[in-house]
Queue: 4 jobs
Job 1
Amino acid sequence: MSLVSVIIPTYNREGLILRALDSVLAQSFRDFDVWIIDDGGNDGSGELVRARAAENPGTAIRYVHTPNNGVAAARNHGIRYSEGDWIALLDSDDEWVPEKLEKQMAYLKRNPESVLIYSDELWIRSGVRVNPPKSYRKFGGEVFEKCLPVCMIGPSTALFKRNLFEETGGFDEEYPVCEDYDFWLRITSRYTAGLVDEPLTIKYGGHSDQLSTSYVAMDYWRIRSLCRIVDTRELSPNRREAVLREIGRKGRILLQGYSKHDRKEMYEEVLTLIRSVDADFPPGI
């Protein structure tokens, strides 16, 4: 059994999947296996992965085709199939630098109490390097409040202990987007995060099938996650106040949008959801 199981969800990305897989095969740290979970795709990804696996008989590369249930389900399937004590995620449109796992395992050796280790990342948008917004600046330690505005921990940067998946129940498969935001909030509400402050992952964006560009009103899902955190976690007064403040900030913007576009049902749903955790949330938006 390998120490690290690498989980790569994919869907119709035969033009990208080998870039991601090859970046894993190029790792200087070698104690890993790879699980590629094809989320109902119908392109040639399977043939490409199987061919690459045949070229690398010394590395366990497994390709599993599942029904199309979304990236959260694909990640969950891969983690459940795998057996490594540590889980590393890699989205099929991203890639790692060759020392990614080695540097994270070196951090673990220096900090054996760590259960979640992530890194900085390099952003490429439509083929051009860009600087991430300041809200995505990386921090180590108690990062829960830093994770409230945006998904600060990129999935492709993360290495975490398997028991975190088992404890949280994994990624919420009802979420078509922001499932990573929700997952990290549940973890960082209880655990600290270790940071390797180097860009060990290359994060690509700007392509047409990127999930974050396919959905509007993503804060709907973030608000759902934040309200669940209030309901299910024992938060300190300061943390609870920070979560409610973020719910209010996101909620006002979202409700203004629903009101402007006359989406009464969504307006009422979100207003009711917010008031379930903050009865004083103002009705006048």
Job 2
Amino acid sequence: MRNFRALGNFIFLLVTAGLGVFMIIVGVGGGVFPDLASLVGTGAGMAITILIGVLLTLAGVHFLIAIADERLDASLFVREGERGRIGVSPHAIREFISGILRDEIGIERFRVRLDHHRDGVGITVRMTLSPDQRVTEVGESIQRELMQHVAERTGVEVREVSVLVKSIRSRGRGRETADDAAGGS
């Protein structure tokens, strides 16, 4: 149903905004449509045509906003509380996870990906470790900390935590990539 609504909003956006722009061009006597502009003819006809064009364009903007709202709702992690809906954005969850990885576990270079799971979130952490860090210990620590703290603080159940060590290198060796420094995707 959600996909149908999004498709409908997109079609209505194209139709109304397109007709709106078309009516404005005809109303101002655009040289592209001289025959249609002659139908409008009078000053009142031009004003009415332009007004209709503006209204149709504004209706197109309404459908654009509806599409943006649908996308935002689809990306939120939602939980029903006693008094209503509680939503947490993926950005907020990634920020929280980044703080745990940096401050509590001591990881400096990483990326976090979130996946919607039924009634929760799946977390994938890709990181670079230094040679003195033990992969299994760090990985299990990340899994334990994220499973506990993310659910506790955000109310979003963590269904899975996957850890991928993409590189093991000394801190001074090599340049840090933009992806590593960003900490998120």
Job 3
Amino acid sequence: MINDGYLIVSGSRIEEVGKTPFAGDRSEFTATVNLKANVLLPGLVNTHGHAAMTLLRGYADDLPLSEWLEARIWPIEDLMTAEDIKWGTWLAIWEMIASGTTTFTDMYFHEDQVAQAVEDSGMRAVLSRGMIGFAPKGEQTAMESRDFVQRWNGAAGGRITTLLGPHAAYTCPPEYLREIVVPLAQELNVPLQIHLCETRYEVEQSIAQYGVTPVQHLVNCGVFAVPTLAAHCVHVSDHDIDLLKANGVRIAHNPQSNLKLGSGIAPLSKLRSAGLTIGLGTDGAASNNDLDMWEEIRLAATLHKGTAEDPVLVSACEALELGTAGGAQALFLEQGLGTLVPGAPADFIVVDYHKPYYYPRHDVTAHLVYSAKSADVIDVVVDGRQLMRNGEYLTLDVEQIVYETNRCASRLFGS
């Protein structure tokens, strides 16, 4: 933590970080900004989500996951067009910029629309076309995934990277994982992300069908031969955790979505003790119902203390790291992202620190984790480009986003 220091940005990179007031010649800079005792910190990193599900926010609440997906979500998703995905994604990007998220991942369809919105908005993202392995969609989603990776990996000046997105073991049969997903990921040299052990029912069904847990099943299918990000990992045994660690699997922890869907609480302490790389995610806005990473950070710091009856289990500093650098590492992004060090990408945010809940000024990190509100974010910079300045959006048209998302929702839901 630096008090009264400075940060110098050159192009898309952090050039210098000072621990004392800047004493050099300010005339050499194109622009200088006095943060007026506000807090500058790395941009937040959302490691799991489905951006365009903002259009389904509030549509199917308070249902078990299987019923939520099969009876409510999937039927509407079958009706969603590329235009719906476009504006649902822009709505998500607006929400994320507003709350200080600078990097997110996505697994959905019509993913070209997502990538284009990322490029135009200035965000950073790790994107995948969601893959369903059952015929006739299996072959189609594999071809679309190949095309998407080839078009977009490294695009937008490197702000967009890609991976494969097999949805889950229960939607991708073993032969599809072994014969299509794994070889394709190896051919394209990209990681993959997958939903894993989200519910107890998922684990029970895997044992009934394959005789092993979903984690062991993915090992048997060769999935972990590819670098893998696993979302959720709520119902994992000690042996499962050993397998995840042995295979270098990275974890996206989604505490609020898991709570709202009644899925359970991931064993964060055990996952961290095993040395796994972990980031935080919101999941889609249909199961959260927002994309507020501050809430996930706070839950990571408090939820597990309560379940373990251990007040020192996850410190404020550790929780903030899960929402920044930990998330960047979980998403296979370059070293330094999610930190404020020389040479790191210039992705950072500014929090308005003049709020009643930030006084007295005992511990800045504790205040941010336990007291901060998403509305306190006033400036957002990604790759050295300012996306929000003093609460003003510089790369998106809020009025158009509101109009278009309302239009899409009216068509989908008949309201």
Job 4
Amino acid sequence: MSLPELKVLLASPRGFCAGVTRAVQIVSMALKKFGTPVYVRHEIVHNKYVVQKLADEGAVFVNELDEVPDGAVVIFSAHGVPLSVVDEAKRRNLTTIDATCPLVEKVHKEARKNYENGRKTLLIGHQGHPEVIGTMGQIPAGEMKLISSIADVDSVPDQWADHLGYVTQTTLSLDETADLLNALKRRFPAIVKPHQNDICYATTNRQKAVKAIAKQCDLLMVIGAPNSSNSKRLVEVAKESGCARSILVQRAKDIDWEYLFGVKTLGITAGASAPEVLVSEVIEALGKHFNISVSEYVETEEKVSFPLPASLRE
């Protein structure tokens, strides 16, 4: 019995961004330099496969610093941490390595600049996301307000109007943010924007690639974690761009094969914290169920890289 034909269209860029690559390298290099265990506050990036691989190498993932013994080495995740966590680590003389993505750090600096210049800050982002918690913790409580929807714009106090700036979570949807920003600028024409767009290049590029292939696909599969903001946005972008059936899967073993019944063209991408090995795994699994032909759509070439912390370059 012959296998059904399936055209697989890979979106590129996909998978690891420069910030994730750097964060994973930081953990691996810290383990080599300091030996085991090295503690990591929160998941270094939002991907179970990556976290488990580093745990197997000797990394210990914790929720808070009170789980880290005195004198230990602790790494802050790529999403960034509130200043209170940095201060607590210093108080306890922990050896710290900061794996915060440089693009997230840029958002932190913008928030601090607003505060230093007497401005309140609006943070466009999703409640409870580690990046949002880290950014909110850069300046004193009451100086920043989280905006998650256009409706939230109405809740900003009138007295903030003349001294107001905004920053955004780096992993949002461009379209979603554009609508929210338009609403903000209508109510607060004098609002100070960041020096550069906060939504990161990798988020933008992955969304553009998905937009470009969405209409050609019967189904678009995003490989990524359910707690990965940028992966979830890719599912939404696919649906908004013409592929009504768009799903998020963590890896090949999570695929519901019945859901692929009747699919002729399958689009595949991966969130910025999903390694390429998981894409290869999915394609290999597809080859057992279908006669596949694989082609790739390249939106742009990414050549960004970020330097490692000085303490690991020595």
